[in-house]
Structures are given as C-alpha cells and as structure tokens.
Design a protein that fits this description.
With 52 residues, this protein is mainly alpha-helical. 85% of the residues lie in helices and 0% in strands. The radius of gyration is 16 Å and the shape is rod-shaped. This is BQ2448_3854 protein.
C-alpha cells in the first residue's frame, strides 16, 4: 500500500513539472512580445485554469 501511494505521489509531482514545462515556453514567448496588452489578458486567463 505504501508503494502505491509513493508511485501516486511521484506521478502527481512529475505531472505538475510536465505542465509547468509546457506553460513556461508560452509565458516566455508572451513576455518577449513587444505589446504588453496581449500579454496581460492571456496571463490572467491562464491563472483561473491553474487554480481550478
């Protein structure tokens, strides 16, 4: 039973790191854009999705 919980915890952590790795390139690309008006709304739209 302990090994099952350990595997579950590791899978959750790896999934979180994987999602962050997918989101980081998008955020860096948006930050490099000269227009700040396009960066603001998209960043705010991603926040509620991450919290939920």
């Amino acid at each position: 039973m302990r090994s099952y919980l350990l595997v579950l915890a590791v899978s959750l952590v790896s999934a979180g790191v994987y999602v962050e790795a997918l989101n980081k390139p998008r955020m860096s690309k948006e930050q490099t854009k000269p227009k700040t008006s396009t960066t603001g709304p998209t960043f705010n739209n991603h926040k509620p999705v991450w919290n939920s």
